[in-house]
């Protein structure tokens, strides 16, 4: 059983036949303190591996499935990113919020050009993408 938002209905498949649940399993081998947002790194643990991984993960899923990335406004002025692929809404990193239930309705679209204007974020995305490629090759 998965804990990420949308896991029950995330049945879309990519060209390999993989669903978001499959990618959650694969990314669980890739997420690390190095791919975590720098401001959250000191709180990252293997038990809370999705912490600080939202935008890079959501844009990576957009590469695979298409669709749009949306953001839930956070108190610090940032956004928590998630995916919507033709009405299939899922958030592979939602469990970082524990029991807090996020509101996924009517959220602003997020754009990689804005997020990746931060060099550190683009580099973390590239690192996660490369790690996923390696895991897929060894699958």
How do you describe this structure in short?
The chain is α+β, with helices and mostly antiparallel strands. It has 4 helices and 4 strands. It has one domain (20-137).
Tell me about this structure.
This protein is 31% helix and 13% strand. It is of the alpha+beta class and 139 residues long. It has one domain (20-137). A 4-stranded antiparallel sheet has the order 3-2-1-4. The model has no long low-confidence stretch (mean pLDDT 96).
Main beta-sheet strand count, sense and barrel state: 4 strands, antiparallel
Form type: globular
Count of alpha/pi helices? 4
N- to C-terminal distance: 21 Å
Structural category is alpha+beta
Q: Uncertain spans, ≥5 residues at pLDDT below 50? A: none
Q: Give the total of beta strands.
A: 4
State the strand order across the main sheet.
Answer: 3-2-1-4
Order of helices and strands: HHEEEEHH
Jot down its keywords.
139 residues; alpha+beta; four-stranded antiparallel sheet
């Amino acid at each position: 059983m998965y804990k990420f938002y949308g896991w029950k209905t995330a049945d879309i498949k990519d060209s390999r036949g993989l669903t978001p649940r499959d990618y959650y399993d694969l990314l669980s081998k890739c997420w690390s303190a190095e791919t975590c947002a720098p401001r959250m790194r000191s709180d990252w643990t293997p038990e809370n591996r999705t912490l600080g991984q939202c935008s890079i993960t959501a844009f990576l899923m957009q590469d695979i499935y298409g669709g749009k990335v949306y953001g839930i406004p956070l108190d610090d002025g940032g956004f928590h990113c998630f995916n919507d692929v033709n009405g299939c809404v899922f958030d592979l990193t939602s469990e970082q919020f524990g029991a807090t239930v996020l509101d996924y309705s009517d959220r602003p679209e997020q754009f990689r050009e804005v997020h990746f204007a931060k060099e550190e974020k683009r580099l973390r995305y590239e690192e996660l993408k490369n790690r996923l490629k390696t895991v897929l090759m060894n699958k």
